[in-house]
Specification:
By secondary structure, the protein is an alpha/beta fold. The protein is about 30% helix and about 15% strand. The strands form three sheets. It has a seven-stranded mixed beta sheet, sandwiched between helices. The chain has a three-stranded antiparallel beta sheet with strand order 10-12-11, covered by helices on one side. A hairpin with a 6-residue loop joins strand 3 and strand 4.
Length: about 400
């Protein structure tokens, strides 16, 4: 009996130890930099581009990690959209300030300028970038990274990327390349909407494929343990909100599900409710009718649940809305960005008087086109309000980009 109890106790101990060992499966670039005793920064005056997502595996801010390191001379901080400490709303300007924890100057990269000026970079030997991306072209942090790389090149400053996971994973590629005439801060580079690269891999590609005005002296501090098939929930890392409406790791999965349609203000996509980017709703929608219509499509890995809500702010605040919540049942099979186009299609069938490009505010078409990377998505879709009319265009660049980007893979 005692022997049996001992075996059971050992079994449970092993389970606990194994579970503990599996909690964090990777080391971010910051963790690897710490392991290397900050060798890449030693003897240099350091500027840091970061936000609240820049943390080590114990959730300590990169700002504080570098500021407290004996052999690192951190002299300035640079704030992207939402600011260094994450207290600025989406789209609002970030101001120059002083960091309340360290007393370091904070220069805004989302205000009068989005590119570091020579004055901002005075006395800097190396710019460090440490921000958790969400793997989607329209999220502005990669735009900040790219223009900062150009500024580093122009001012003969080194650029170091502390790599982090692509939370969507390193395999999902969706969407056409951004076209000439549609380059903007929400589509800064000629890459697909979902590009399946880490920020370090993307930096290498930008630097070597002529996507920047000038290439910089670039170093990527690689992660340890990350695999391309991993989404963020498989890394064991804690998620820090990358913006107020990306509160959870799975929020990164839903951002490309509805973000393009959300630019039109046509229906609520959950911004202003508790599940941003996870729903489609309006006062003129019948929830059960729409859920049946969407489920009838049998989209791989997806299911749609009828729901009723009253948004707390933004579109439809205080009104009774009906619609559907998107449920990802099989993440590997789901084609994320297609959902919003099928939604536009089915809404046009159910409510022909509400066809999206006949009903939405035309003043917002410009932003829709910028996020889409082309006006062809809108123009082709407008003909019949059918996803089939844009499907080939939406995927026309995927295969070539997949081939071209592989040479910059740092992980298998």
């Amino acid at each position: 009996m005692n022997k049996t109890r001992t075996i059971i106790a050992l079994f449970f101990c092993l389970m606990v130890l194994n579970a503990s060992a599996q909690k964090i499966r990777i080391k971010t670039g910051l963790e690897v930099l710490k392991e290397q005793n900050f060798k890449a920064l030693e003897g240099k005056r350091v500027g840091l581009i970061t936000n609240p997502t820049g943390v080590d595996n114990h959730l300590k801010s990169t700002i504080d990690v570098l500021h407290e390191a004996a052999n690192v001379n951190l002299v300035a901080l640079y704030g992207p959209e939402h600011g260094v400490r994450g207290d600025v709303h989406a789209g609002d300007s970030v101001s120059n300030s002083k960091d309340f924890n360290t007393g370091l100057p904070v220069f805004s990269l989302y205000g009068k300028t989005r590119k570091p000026t020579p004055e901002m970079l005075q006395g800097i030997d190396v710019l460090v970038y440490d921000i958790q991306d969400i793997g989607c072209r329209s999220f502005t942090y990669i735009s900040t990274m790219g223009v900062a790389m150009e500024a580093a090149a122009e001012n003969n400053i080194e650029f170091v990327v502390l790599d982090r996971p692509n939370p969507v994973n390193g395999l999902k590629i969706e969407g056409n390349l951004t076209e000439d005439g549609f380059i903007s801060f929400v589509s800064q580079f000629k890459i697909p909407y979902l590009y399946a690269l880490t920020c370090g891999e993307l930096a290498l590609m930008l630097n070597n494929e002529g996507m920047l005005s000038q290439s910089c002296k670039l170093q990527v501090v690689k992660m340890k343990g990350w695999k391309r098939k991993m989404d963020y929930t498989q890394t064991g890392l804690q998620w820090v909100p990358s913006s107020p409406h990306i509160p959870h790791a799975h929020s990164a999965f839903f951002y490309p599900v509805s973000g393009i349609l959300g630019e039109l203000g046509y229906v609520s996509i959950g911004v202003g409710y508790t599940i941003p980017f996870q729903l489609f709703a309006a006062e003129w929608i019948n929830a059960d009718q729409l859920a049946k219509s969407m489920n009838r499509l049998a989209l791989p890995g997806l299911q749609f649940r009828p729901m009723h809500l009253k948004p707390f702010y933004a579109l439809g605040v205080g009104e009774h809305y009906q619609g559907v919540q998107v449920h990802i049942m099989d993440y590997q099979k789901a084609r994320l960005s297609e959902v919003q186009f099928y939604m536009m299609q089915e809404l046009a069938k159910l409510y022909p008087e509400k066809k999206v490009f006949e009903h939405a505010d035309q003043k917002r078409f410009n932003m829709f086109d910028k996020v889409s990377g082309s006006d062809q998505i809108r123009l082709l879709f407008s003909e019949n309000h059918s996803f089939d009319d844009i499907k080939d265009y939406w995927y026309k660049d995927v295969q070539q980009f997949s081939q071209d980007s592989k040479k910059y893979y740092l992980y298998k």
